[in-house]
Task: structure prediction
Amino acid sequence: MRYLLPYFFLFLIITDAHAQTACTGGLGDPIVHISFGSGAGIGSPLGAGITNLKYIKDECPSDGYYSIVNSCTGCWGNTWHSIRSDHTGDPNGYFMVINASYDPSDFYVQTVDGLCESTTYQFAAWVMNIVSYGGELPSNITFSIEKTDGTVLQSTQTGDIATVYPAKWNQYAFYFTTPPGISSVVIRMKNNAPGGIGNDLALDDITFRTAGPSIGVHIDNFNTDTATVCPQDPGSLQLRADVESCYANTVYQWQLSMDSGLSWTNIPGATGLSYSRSPTTAGFYLYRMTVAQSTANLGILSCRIASDPVAVVVNRIPEPAVTISLLPAITCEGAPAVFTAKPVDGGTLPAYQWELNGSPVGPNSDSYTTVSLADGDNVQCRMTSNAACVIAAEAISNPIAARVIPHVNASVRILASATTICSDSGVLFVAIPSNGGNHPQYHWMVNGLDAGSDIAAYSSSTLKDGDLIDCRMTGSLVCSDPVLSDNPVKMTVYPLPSIVLTPDTIIEAGHTVHLTPIISGVIDHFTWSPVTGLDDPLSPDPVALPAVNTTYQLDVVSDKGCTASAREVVGVFYYLAMPNAFSPNGDGVNDLFRVPPSVPLHFLHMSVYNRWGLRVFTGTAAGDGWDGRWNDHLQPPGTYIWEVQYRDLATGKTVVKKGTVVLIR
Result:
């Protein structure tokens, strides 16, 4: 943790009744600064002999124990305050948390060596009563400074430290003077109240500092503790100190720090109440006054006091510069050209003057835009810096010679595979560029709306009559502007004729059907196919007498050359009529019992049974027939039962037929 100015400071000033007026207005650097360190988790125990309490690695120690922590929360049923940082507010800063022993005892003892005799010192420590509500014993502490033999040089008590909410750190401090011949003392902190219920406290930032006269340091002609100057400023700065007159003999020494106060060095010869500082190079300089009662003591940290520092900031001498850039680097004729200035050491509000071919142009701004550049025009910028300590305020930028290119005279034409089509036709459009560069971009449009991708060809089969196809091309050459085609294509799209035929029909073999299409549109000619079974193939509505299932197609052509077609299926069905007798005697007449070949059907299966149900024949091919034998044995004359399965060619359904046949011999 760091030693910071307290937000609450309670002095217990102790003086000897026979001593001269207290000399405690100023303090030296800390001789002892016990901050307990910082880190994550719980800290390490104190060194041997410092406390009579026992160490425990716990945020909430028990009676007679202590710990080194950076927080303690929720302890003992929240009867302690929750503390989440040390007294400086550092969440990682350690402090000592103490749960007092049952009997009053010393909870902190430390020896301080290297003191100066007959010198006044300040002892201080930050303490918090961590009990969170009244009714418990308050903390009560005696601070004492003793000789190493136990003789008390000075002591004081805090009295009862009240319980407050929210928790509050208090700094307790008092002063004492070392007797002649004494250079070591013992710091002792004693807990006067018994432990048990209450008397619990936190301790932080114990300091031991030399005390002496108050010292005020200032810089002539500056109202603050910081003087900001330039290296070229003439003359010296006068630093002066006002030192309280309370030492019998006072010696002075001015000191300088160039590392922000981490270390200090004596300024040779600067031993008076004033110091004349000569000009220096740029940098940050801290100055302070140290005071002691003798020259010997002045060189001992524990025997001197020091003032608060004053600062001298010496700015460096700025070196103004400015560079300009142009976007785009190559400008198309008439397009905006934007120049931008980038200043160095321009100060808070630099001034700009742009120049075109040596003449002033543009605003007082870090950018300049123009649309009237010509190829070869020269642009520069003059910047005037307002930075502190500047000597040569004006800087001239790099010149930029403008490269201005005229716009490309590009064009595009559309080549269409057709401009007059029937509505079922597709058209291919191809863009023919001129001065488009190697990789022009294309944007196809139909009636002004987006269509097609970024390629040179576009095709469509959904165009309508009057649609307008256009193409916008952006060339890949520098300064190519988008151009529309020279010849947008207006489409003429003719409607298709339409044909409505009656639904598919099934007729009995030997019967006719009248084909009566309904045709719309102006028809130039038509064609029926096939012509088999039609009474007049040249008629638009012929009569059909097909022998088998037949699909008739009508094709028409309009007066604009657009075509349409339609089909009608005429199914033909036959009744199956089987012979009722046959005589397999080898004379070539009625020797087989079979399905007559004149009946067009899709034969599946035929079986023949005798009167006892024995199957004497099975056939699966259309030409199969029974010759009156079973297992190569002639069967006796008589009546037999037959069954035929076939698929009707008109309906597509499977049909089973049965009957009887007489075998004659």
